[in-house]
Amino acid sequence: MATLSEAYTETPLHLQHIIPIDFDSVKEVPESHSWPRSGDESPRRILSLDGDHFSLPAIDLDSPDAIKMVGHACKVMGIFQVTNHGIPSSLLREVESQAWQFFSLPAIAKVRAVRSPGGATGYGVARMTPFFNKFMWHEGFTMMGSPLEHAREVWPHGYGKFCEAMEDYQDKMKALSERLLAMILKYLGISEHDIDWPRLRSNPCSALQLNSYPQCPDPGQVMGLAPHTDTFFLTILHQKDSAHGLQFHREGRGWVPVFPMDGALVVNVGDMLHIMSNAMFPSVVHRVITNEKRHRLSMGYFYGPPMDFRVGPIHRLMQTSGQEVAARFRSITVKDYVQMKAKNLDKALSMIRIR
Ligand code: OGA
Ligand code: NI
């Protein structure tokens, strides 16, 4: 069974594109991390006129209309929040606290968990770093299942609580992802016979990504996470209370901030759901700015199909109301798409688009 790490072996990274700077030791923003002050790439550029007053809809998953609302939000925005999601707040606090413990360590200790050049898991900067001229004000820790291999390098005798919290969180996030995906398919009128549901669920490709955006001497100069779309079906994001920074891009509106809402999780559509829905659901472009003088933490759970699964527009979706709708994408295995994205980032989607 292919793994995500195997998909990355063809695109190994240099250590300079893995190991973050020592954020504790910088007194001013280095040139390497200073983004343009104007232009499309500028972190300062917020086109949204009324963005500050916009709040992303929160859908109560226990509501009788939840399926309709989730489907509608996927179609119109590609991003929404959910409440009554079943993830205990005690678990969210515990994962936050474990993540803080890790990111508060000195740089020399964190680097013991460093991601390998062709690997997918461990400590490091965002994998898309080589595609940009400047570095991001960000450090991350990625895991797929048990983080034991990395955690025990960091805490040889005290990794138990960290691993336990991360594994429990991933189990519950997986169940929530399946619940959301089932709701979305139901909204689309897709039955479990229309797609290979048992196989889709049997060995899903998923990852938990802890993100840390350290305090910055001049937040307006740096980019937390550069604009991107997520690769898999969907992402479920928890933002630690008061520290906001996530923004998504809306046509005609610009960058819209997503303020953390107590008890709510952010869900966004990724490339693979965009492909399977035959472009009905947008794979939402988002970024993170470090606009506050405080350390920000978030936890993203990425949920996708197994590595050898073929993603393509769902056949049944193209035969609605007696009319044949043309497929907008050719189908591709998850592994090939992940590799294509590792080599081409945002160009990957257009490479499989049928014109
Ligand atoms: C990501 C991401 C947003 C955030 O990890 O892909 O978009 O708020 N994170 O940290
Ligand atoms: Ni993302």
TrEMBL record:
The keyword Chaperone does not apply. Keywords: Iron, Metal-binding, Oxidoreductase. It comes from the Eukaryota. The keyword Iron applies. Residues 203-305 form the Fe2OG dioxygenase domain. Pfam families: 2OG-FeII_Oxy, DIOX_N. Belongs to the iron/ascorbate-dependent oxidoreductase family. This is Gibberellin 3-beta-dioxygenase 1-like. It comes from Rhodamnia argentea. The gene is LOC115732516.
